């Protein structure tokens, strides 16, 4: 199996090393793992592509490249340049430092990499490690992802639906904020929503007197509805959420058409 790996935390991120190990196990002795990851951190860039300017790409080692672009850029670079059209069998994006559950999905570069792979007609999985008081101070905060990532991806390859629709399915996996031996199992979930937890800005004044604004996230341990990703994660479960890039509100189409007289 040929696997393309990317992330949004950058080529030197510890979560990428975890994902490379997972990919190596999935690919097997006769397989190939190719890494094309951002040269610098690209958290929060969502599905951005560098449409208006070029990006530099550099080979750092065998089957290992860094690109000055987003995760979606890296997927495109991997498919059309690094692999020279030899399409991967699977694209893995992550393991993200922090959760990509609930509304975080919409901002995530990790999700953007997997989404671009799905739009390219490839099987894709995004993987993220929730942080919390039970794992953030561990020697390896990615312990749950490292311990359960391979089995989770294998289960998806064996049992998940991999369709050929225009907007193909891809999968969003979040590992709970607990040590590996405290993971309670896996739940298939919907995307949740943290009420009253929004991104905002925090102003700071520089030594030169100029005002700068830092983007600031909201609380990550707010409860979400039962059956959703963040709720499962905070209860100690791995969440697996099927996703598509289609943003149509399908439930609103018919009612709106009726109001327009269609």
From TrEMBL:
It catalyses: a ribonucleoside 5'-phosphate + H2O = a ribonucleoside + phosphate. One of its GO terms (molecular function) is metal ion binding. InterPro entries: SurE (IPR030048), SurE-like_Pase/nucleotidase (IPR002828), SurE-like_sf (IPR036523). Its cofactor is a divalent metal cation. Binds 1 divalent metal cation per subunit. It is found in: Cytoplasm. Transmembrane segments: none annotated. One of its GO terms (cellular component) is cytoplasm. It comes from the Bacteria. A divalent metal cation binds at residues 8-9, 43, 96. The keyword Cytoplasm applies. Pfam families: SurE. Keywords: Cytoplasm, Hydrolase, Metal-binding, Nucleotide-binding. Residues 3-195 form the Survival protein SurE-like phosphatase/nucleotidase domain. Its main location: cytoplasm. Its EC number is 3.1.3.5. The keyword Zinc-finger does not apply. Belongs to the SurE nucleotidase family. Nucleotidase that shows phosphatase activity on nucleoside 5'-monophosphates. NCBIfam families: PRK00346.1-4 (NF001490), PRK13931.1 (NF010541), surE (TIGR00087). This is 5'-nucleotidase SurE. It comes from Rhodobaculum claviforme.
């Amino acid at each position: 199996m040929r696997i393309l790996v990317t992330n949004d935390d950058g080529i030197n991120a510890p979560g990428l090393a975890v994902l490379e190990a997972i990919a190596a196990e999935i690919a097997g002795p006769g397989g190939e793992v190719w890494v094309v990851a951002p040269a610098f951190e690209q958290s929060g860039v969502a599905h951005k592509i560098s449409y208006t300017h070029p990006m530099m790409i550099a080979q750092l080692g065998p089957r290992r490249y860094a690109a000055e672009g987003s995760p979606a850029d890296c997927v495109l670079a991997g498919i059309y340049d690094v692999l020279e059209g030899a399409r991967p069998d699977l694209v893995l994006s992550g393991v993200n430092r922090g959760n990509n559950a609930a509304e975080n999905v919409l901002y995530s570069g990790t999700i953007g990499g997997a989404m671009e792979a799905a739009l390219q007609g490839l099987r894709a999985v995004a993987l993220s490690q929730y942080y919390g008081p039970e794992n953030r101070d561990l020697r390896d905060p990615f312990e749950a992802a490292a311990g359960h990532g391979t089995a989770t991806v294998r289960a998806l390859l064996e049992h998940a639906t991999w369709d050929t629709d225009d907007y193909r399915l891809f999968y969003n996996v979040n590992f709970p904020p607990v040590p590996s031996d405290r993971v309670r199992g896996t739940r298939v979930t919907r995307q949740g929503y943290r009420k009253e937890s929004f991104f905002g800005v925090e102003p700071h004044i520089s030594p030169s007197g100029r005002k700068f604004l830092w983007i600031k996230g909201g609380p990550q341990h707010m409860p979400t509805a039962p059956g959703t990703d963040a709720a499962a994660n905070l209860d100690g479960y791995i969440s697996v959420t099927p996703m598509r890039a289609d943003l149509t509100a399908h439930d609103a189409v018919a009612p709106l058409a009726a109001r327009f007289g269609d």
